[in-house]
Amino acid sequence: MNVVELNRVTRHFGAVRAVGDLDLTIGRGSVVALLGPNGAGKTTALSLLLGLLEPDRGSVTLFGRPPSAAVRAGLIGAMPQDSGFVPGATVRDVVELARALYPHPLPAVDVLAAAGLTDRAGRRVDRLSGGETQRARFAFALAGGPELLVLDEPAAAMDVTARQAFWDGVRGYAEDGNTVLFSTHQLHEADAVADRIVVLAAGTVVADATPEQIREIGGGSLDAAFRTLTGSER
Ligand SMILES: Nc1ncnc2c1ncn2[C@@H]1O[C@H](COP(=O)(O)OP(=O)(O)OP(=O)(O)O)[C@@H](O)[C@H]1O
């Protein structure tokens, strides 16, 4: 059974077709990067996948069931863009809240360590730096011990050291048999972390291959491949 199956999924916002006839299949244990220029449909695709948006047409299944059922079963951990926390809660409170929502949570001490927040556990989430906030959101996604992690531009505000630790944690999580899908604008991160890169442009998949295969399209350069595939100048 595939972890993710999107079958010809289309979603409009008024006259704008954000995602059109999107096909995406992801098997267990993969780390998949979703790339695409601004407005390509990455966030919409992830929202459709999580059941936060309904498709106009097409089907979405996670672990062979509708997204809402997979979420209820505690199989999914997500880090959507710009999700907030209750002001005044501490990092530990946030981790405990997530743990309480899932049937098989990870130990809080492991979650805090994986997110690099052990020494910030008692800090209020509304007093964290930008990069620390991202890490707290990752901790929230991870705490339930989900089998699929969906991360929308997860490392955006992290510094170099935090990024390295974060991506090491993500790879380690996948090596335990879990599945990770993340969006990013950092091509080198997709190249270094993902087994597979899916490139979106104007709401459709224009490439779905290994980082090596994508680089070949650009004569060895992922940046050139991205420009060729998406028709964008970056
Ligand atoms: N709620 C909405 N209402 C109207 N249009 C929307 C809405 N959400 C997204 N769109 C439009 O749908 C298209 C895809 O947007 P989406 O946010 O999925 O792109 P993205 O690839 O995540 O972009 P970015 O890299 O800038 O985050 C864009 O044209 C966007 O303006």
From TrEMBL:
GO terms for cellular component: plasma membrane. PROSITE patterns: ABC_TRANSPORTER_2. SUPFAM superfamilies: P-loop containing nucleoside triphosphate hydrolases. Residues 4-227 form the ABC transporter domain. Coiled coil: none annotated. Its main location: membrane. GO terms for molecular function: ATP binding; ATP hydrolysis activity. InterPro entries: AAA+_ATPase, ABC_transporter-like_ATP-bd, ABC_transporter_ATP-binding, P-loop_NTPase. It is found in: Cell membrane. One of its GO terms (biological process) is response to antibiotic. It holds the Pfam family ABC_tran. It is a peripheral membrane protein. The keyword Transport applies. Keywords: Antibiotic resistance, ATP-binding, Nucleotide-binding, Transport. PANTHER family: ABC TRANSPORTER ATP-BINDING PROTEIN. This is Putative ABC transporter ATP-binding protein. The lineage of its organism: Bacteria, Bacillati, Actinomycetota, Actinomycetes, Micromonosporales.
